[in-house]
Amino acid sequence: MSSAPSTSGWGSNSLYDLTPADLQAWLTLHAQPAYRAKQILEALYQKGQSDPSSWTTLPKSMRDALATEFPTPGLELIQQQTSADGTAKWLWKLPDGQSVETVMIPADGRRTVCVSTQVGCAYKCGFCASGMKGFFRDLTAGEIVQQVAHVDRHLKPDRVSNIVFMGMGEPLSNYDNLIRAIRVINSPDGLKIGARKITISTVGLIPKMERLAKEGLQLELAVSLHAPNDGIRGKLMPINKKYPMTRLLAACRAFVKATKRLITFEYILIDGLNDQPQHAEELAGRLKRILCKVNLIPCHPIPGTPWGRPPEERMLAFEKKLREKGIACTLRQSRGLDIEGACGQLRLHHEEELSS
Ligand code: SF4
What is the pTM of this model? Predict the structure, then answer.
């Protein structure tokens, strides 16, 4: 669903929706030279100028046509927070009044942006604030791209170096807009972020994973596993009923075979639920023949859920056990704890304030 009906006849209201190929097609339709595409993309993504009327390298007639056909509704900043560790978080108001959030995590010389792809989420994972209020709508490609473009502008003279689609929403459920946005983000004339620096995180929507494997993009795929067996995964992730672990892991094997890319499994360590040595053993057994690494994430307690963070020594023991069993893994540090760093929390908080 798009946020507003298109006035351009181009299926879009926003220049940020257009891939470089779309822009070329628009210029051809308007009998304009192809090199103008580079100028437009440079203004949007290198100079950070979203208003065509300021693009004085273009003839006035073209500026007027672009401004009329693409009014480019923008994201409006509601709130920005910066954590003591440098993690920054933005809450945006969308043109239809909905809100989404974007997080930037600086670490080891990288500036990674965690991007939202939907308003709310239908998947209701038990450890996640984003799914608590249900699904509202897909973001347009332009709304996805704008999150990155805004943070990129904010960071100048530095640039965004990595993207993770791990914010609000299930990215593969908004597949077409996601891929369109990635084509802009990845383009040498767009935001110039290499495909290998872009990670898509999914609960494991198998048909979409199969489609993604055929896109010819060298993207990173992260699969939210969070359990060594269906019994535990079913408690945390309703999607496990539709795609149980045996099918999901077979799809992961097929993805690796088709793309020759390593897959990352995300595993939130939850106190007393999935953090015992036997869970590490079972997990290692199931992942044995998959080219993969495991990202262990300490549970970030969400108010209203029963799940808590295990003691440090238990998490370290889990990591050690996986390594002993030959599984590459890292234990991730929680970032931005002082600014409600878990996905969806800032938005939930904002909505509660509005309704109180
Ligand atoms: S973890 Fe991802 S898929 Fe699950 S509810 Fe949260 S946003 Fe949705």
Answer: 0.91
297 domain residue, yes or no? yes
Q: Give yes or no: residues 83 and 65 share one domain.
A: no
Question: Is 1 a member of any domain?
Answer: no
Lowest mean pLDDT among 4-18, 236-250, 321-335: 4-18
Residue 192 binned pLDDT confidence (cut-offs 50, 70, 90):
very high
In a domain, 316, yes or no: yes
Q: Which atom of ligand 1 is nearest to the CA of 122?
A: 8
Q: Write down which residue in 69, 99, 131 finishes a domain.
A: 69
> Has residue 5 got a pLDDT over 80?
no
Cβ < 6 A, ligand 1 pocket? 121, 123-125, 128, 130-131, 168-170, 203, 343
The fraction of the chain above a pLDDT of 70, given in percent, is 90
Of 69, 76, 101, 210, which residue is the catalytic one?
101
3-state secondary structure the chain: CCCCCCCCCCCCCCHHHCCHHHHHHHHHHCCCCCCHHHHHHHHHHHCCCCCHHHCCCCCHHHHHHHHHHCCCCCCEEEEEEECCCCCEEEEEECCCCCEEEEEEEEECCEEEEECCCEEECCCCCCCCCCCCCCEEEECCHHHHHHHHHHHHHHHCCCCCCEEEECCCCCHHHHHHHHHHHHHHHHCCCCCCCCHHHEEEEECCCHHHHHHHHCCCCCCEEEEECCCCCHHHHHHHCCHHHHCCHHHHHHHHHHHHHHHCCCEEEEEEECCCCCCCHHHHHHHHHHHCCCCEEEEEEECCCCCCCCCCCCCHHHHHHHHHHHHHCCCEEEECCCCCHHHCCCCCHHHHHHHHHHHC
Atom of ligand 1 nearest to the CA of 201: 2
| C-alpha of residue 256 to centroid of ligand 1, in Å | 23
Report the nearest-CA residue for atom 7 of ligand 1. 169
- Residue 340 annotated to the active site: no
Residue range of the domain that includes 138: 76-355
Q: State the catalytic residue, choosing from 121, 292, 299, 343.
A: 343
User: Are 48 and 197 contained in the same domain?
Assistant: no
* pLDDT of 190 over the 80 cut: yes
Question: Which of 49-58, 165-174, 252-261 is predicted with the least confidence, judged by mean pLDDT?
Answer: 49-58
pLDDT, tens digit, 9 for 90 and up, residues 301-345: 888 888 999 999 999 999 999 999 999 999 987 655 454 444 555
Domain count, the chain: 2
CATH number at residue 225: 3.20.20.70
How confident is the model at residue 3, as a pLDDT? 40
In angstroms, what is the span from residue 59 Cα to ligand 1's centroid?
Answer: 45
Establish whether 101 is a catalytic residue.
yes
The rounded Å distance from CA 254 to ligand 1 centre is 23
Domain C-terminal end among 11, 35, 69:
69
For a mutational test of ligand 1's pocket, the pick from 170, 243, 343, 348, i.e. the residue with the most ligand atoms closer than 8 A to its C-beta, is 170
Q: Do 124 and 52 have their domain in common?
A: no
